[in-house]
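Researcher: Re-running this chain for the archive, since the previous output was lost when a drive failed. Same request as before.
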Amino acid sequence: MIAVEGRRGAAGIAAEDLIDLLAPLFRAVEHHPLSGDERLWGRTVTDERYAIVATVPTASTTAPHNP
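Model: Regenerated structure tokens:
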């Protein structure tokens, strides 16, 4: 799963909060800050913008293999 999110004032969700929600459901959750890259927004931004990449568990890691 890839989520591009952010938080401006009270709107949105902080990266740390989203990671806490997703961590129990996914094998890996990666945080990629995006606020500092002016090329993405066409200007400097001061709010929190980020991408979260979450990887689902594979069948072999979630259930025992029964031949």
